[in-house]
Design goal:
This protein is of the alpha/beta class. It has helices spanning 15-26, 79-86, 94-101, 115-128, 160-165, 184-187, 190-198, 254-268, 274-278, 308-316, 357-363, 376-386, 408-422, and strands at residues 7-11, 30-34, 67-70, 91-93, 106-110, 133-137, 153-157, 170-176, 203-213, 216-221, 227-231, 236-239, 244-246, 289-292, 298-301, 325-330, 348-353, 369-372, 392-395. The protein folds into three domains: 7-89, 3-Layer(aba) Sandwich (Rossmann fold); 97-278, Mur-like, catalytic domain (UDP-N-acetylmuramoyl-L-alanine:D-glutamate ligase), CATH 3.40.1190.10; 289-422, Protein-Tyrosine Phosphatase, Chain A, CATH 3.90.190.20. The chain contains 13 helices and 19 strands. The strands form three sheets. A nine-stranded mixed β-sheet has the order 6-7-5-8-9-10-11-12-13, with helices on one face. Strands 14-15-19-16-17-18 form a six-stranded mixed β-sheet, with helices on both faces. Strand 1, helix 1 and strand 2 (30-34) form a beta-alpha-beta unit.
């Protein structure tokens, strides 16, 4: 490897920061990584790194660096980012570096909800047809870690943070699944959040957004603003090329919409849905998995529901089955209202819990019976005690997990552990 002594300042030592660090070392650069946490609290393996890794907690000098690299999760209002910008440094993210180094075709997927599932299902559907495709980005491999992976396509999940910082990204096809209020404090409002999501179309050969229209879901071209694909209430997909496809009956609710997005991308790429139809595509963990207990009650783990729109979408699936439903809602609340949840009718009880449970209970304007618990586990015990036979108990928190858990995965694992004990 040729040695290039370009000095790189990397802000943040999280998952993306570590990926940036390893990429800099592979390039032969001289990286310095900065984090507000002290070294013992970071899981950095420095044993094989020959260069200094500085851990700074406040201000720092940027004059001796050629470039500044950051994790996309850094807000533009973060004092470190503002300091770097005041000193006229150009900021690069992992997305920028990946795009500059990449030569393979890209499929870009974004949206408030469902994007990880669509990326994962696309990878399965394409691989089943002999097309090697790698899921990466906000889901799957970190972008910079997959540059040397032998494949034909990268299927890239992009968050609103990544899109905010990114330049135009060339893509074979881009897909915007939905836009609901989320990360509003980071972006400064819903309009700015929507603008960031729209950047996925800037340099795409074909782009589509999903919209509701007269009881149907349509795939609207970002180039022509015309409806090119349609999903009706019976699960039939049609296109303006007169193609017709029936979604298998084991997909319903949100999964049906996600399958529709997969179908559009495969159609654009000239692939078919035969292999995707033969067996149900594998689902990701903590996204609606169901467990039946000895009282014939269904426990639903949708820990990934971290905003109210995703909680409501999950809940709607169970509200028309003539079963009492118990929703566990709580954690760190990021929104200003409970929106769609206020309008859901039926035999519903909501148990509010966690850091912002009391705040959310005050915001609730619907007809459900309401209860309060200190924690998610307390809410589960309460539901276990009051839910009758054949009830449905749904964890769809509508909140971040950080009041009690490091991630939605750890929250979901704790839910499963309790359910296993019940069974």
């Amino acid at each position: 490897m040729s040695f290039n002594r370009k000095a790189i300042l990397i802000l943040g030592a999280g998952k993306t920061g570590k990926s940036l660090l390893q990429f800099a070392l592979r390039k032969g650069y001289l990286p310095t990584i900065v984090d507000s946490r002290d070294l013992p609290r970071l899981s950095l393996d420095l044993s094989e790194i020959k260069y200094f890794v500085q851990i700074m907690t406040n201000t720092f000098d940027t004059q001796n660096y050629h470039e500044v690299w950051i994790s996309s999760s850094f807000s533009p209002s973060h004092p470190w980012v503002q300091l770097v910008q005041r000193r006229n440094h150009v900021i690069y993210t992992d997305v920028d570096l990946f795009v500059d180094d990449n030569s393979k075709p890209l499929i870009l997927i974004t949206g408030t909800n469902g994007k990880s599932t669509v990326v994962y299902w696309l990878q399965q559907a394409m691989n089943a047809q002999g097309i090697s495709a790698i899921a990466c980005g906000n889901f799957g491999l970190p972008l910079l870690d997959c540059l040397d992976v032998d494949c034909q396509y990268y299927i890239v999940e992009l968050s609103s943070y990544q899109l905010y910082w990114s330049k135009a990204i060339d893509a074979e096809v881009s897909m915007l699944l939905n836009v609901e209020p989320d990360h509003l404090e980071w972006h400064g409002g819903f309009d700015a959040y929507k603008q960031a999501k729209q950047k996925v179309f800037l340099s795409a050969k074909k782009g589509y957004r999903l919209e509701a229209s007269n009881g149907e879901i349509i795939g609207v071209s970002s180039q022509s603003s015309e409806s090119e694909y349609c999903l009706d209430a019976q699960g039939v997909i049609t296109s303006n090329r007169h193609d017709r496809h029936v979604i298998p009956p084991f997909y319903h609710g949100v999964d049906r919409l996600n399958f529709f997005a997969v179908a559009i991308v495969l159609s654009v790429l000239g692939l078919d849905l035969i292999s995707a139809n033969q067996t149900k595509l594998q689902q990701l963990n903590y996204r609606g998995e169901e467990t039946l207990d000895p009282k014939s009650r269904v426990w639903v783990n949708n820990s990934k529901a971290t905003n109210i729109a995703s909680s409501a979408a999950c809940l709607q699936r169970y509200m028309n089955n003539n079963q009492p439903v118990f929703l566990l809602l709580g954690g760190v609340f990021k929104e200003k209202s409970l929106g769609q949840l206020n309008r859901i009718k039926g035999d519903l009880s909501i148990i509010f819990y966690g850091k912002d449970g009391r705040k959310m209970r005050k915001l609730y304007e619907g007809d459900a019976r309401v209860y309060a618990s200190a924690s998610m586990l307390d809410a589960m015990k309460q539901a276990d005690a009051i839910a009758p036979q054949e009830a449905v108990i749904v964890l769809a928190p509508g909140c971040a997990s950080f009041d009690a858990y490091s991630s939605f995965e750890s929250r979901g694992a704790a839910f499963n552990q309790y359910v296993e004990e019940v069974i």
